[in-house]
Design brief:
Blueprint (H helix, E strand, L loop, with lengths): L5 H16 L12 H5 L4 H7 L9 H21 L10 H7 L1
Amino acid sequence: MYVYSAAAVSSGVTEARARIFRHMLNPTGQRSPHKILRKKLIGEKVAQWYPYDINKDDPLVMARQEQERLSKLEMLKRRGKGPPKKGQGKRATKRSK
């Protein structure tokens, strides 16, 4: 006749359950990244959702956008609305007073 302690039976059942259902056995209760690492990676699906952006790869499109930006900046400078030179902005004038 076999005499088993309740703790041994309980631990054996727990180990068997972990193997069958593919659970992570953590008897000490320490924090583990297993829960996070178990999830599927979603980066590929997110990347597929957004359409391909030609603006980032085509140098002609980038050059045209840069040219438009520079021409707008030049127009603003002629009207006196362009960005201030370094050290002459609002913050610098407040500090000098």
